[in-house]
Structure formats: C-alpha cells, structure tokens
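WARN no homologs supplied; continuing
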Amino acid sequence: MQHLGTQTLETERLVLRKLTSDDSEAMYNNWASDSEVTEYLTWPPHESVEVTRQLIGHWMEEYEKEDFYQWAIMPKDLGEPVGTISVVDADDSVGMVHIGYCIGRAWWGKGYTTEAFERLISFFFEDVELNRIESQHDVRNPGSGRVMEKCGLLYEGTKRQADRNNQGICDSALYAIVRSDYKA
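OK structure emitted
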C-alpha cells in the first residue's frame, strides 16, 4: 500500500480535484446548504458560506498529508464542483478505505457519483494498491446503495442501529469490493 494523497483524476465527464477556497460559494450553493442533500449524512447543512469556507480551509491544510483523500466532483462542462467524494475512514493494517460521497440535488440521477466512485476504485486498487474499498448507507437511502452496486461493490449485510446521521441512530447497509473482485 502506497498512499499518494488527493491526486487530480479525470473521467469522460468529470474532473476530481482538491477543493480550494475559490470553491466555497459553489459548494455552499450547490450542495452543502441543502437539507435534502444532507438528510442521511453525518454533518448538518451549512448555515453560511463562511462555514463552508472554514471547512475547505481545514481540508486545504489536510491535503499536505499523503493519507488524506478529499475530492471535488466537477463536471467538465460546468467548471465548478457539484459534490464531494472522500475517504471517511481507513485501516492501513488491512489496506482498506471507506468511501463517502454527496452530490447536489440538481445532479442526482445523472451518474456523476457512480462515475467518480468508479474512478476512485481504479485509483485505489491500481495506484495506491489497496486491498479493500467499502461504503455504507442508511437503509432509508437506497439510491446510495444503487451507486455502490453499479460500482461493483457487493452487499455484505446490514448492521442494525450501528450508525448515526442527521436522522438519528440508523441501520446501515455495508457494501465492499476487494482486490480479487476488482482483478477478476
């Protein structure tokens, strides 16, 4: 396993890149202030663009670390970020990362999250040489699970009352893909 930090990655329609302070208003307006976007997330909607600016400032400091992974999801034809995808947990002892993502409501159903996640899967297995990539979702948010399935992650089970988000304590469906699945 060789941590590389947040690298700029591209897909056919997207650029995945580090966020900068210039992205504060787009992040705030496109997803971070929307209570529907954050309904099943662990952080509340941002109350002001200043909250967003401070968070991005923190991430900009974290980008110095080789094991910090936080990307803006930016459609090439739009030129501004519409969501984020990141490592929210990791375990180097087993070569695992846990991926979390969110995207603005205006871009739901366009395949951007799936496209971004697929690109991270290849990055983590081919470049970082991980063994396992996992993700989970509140069972009341099945759309997130469909993203995981489209990316080749396999359902591993539901952990009852094992997570907390903006809805309170919740059941969490766990999905994962391991290196041997990816290579097959």
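The chain is about 30% helix and 30% strand.
OK
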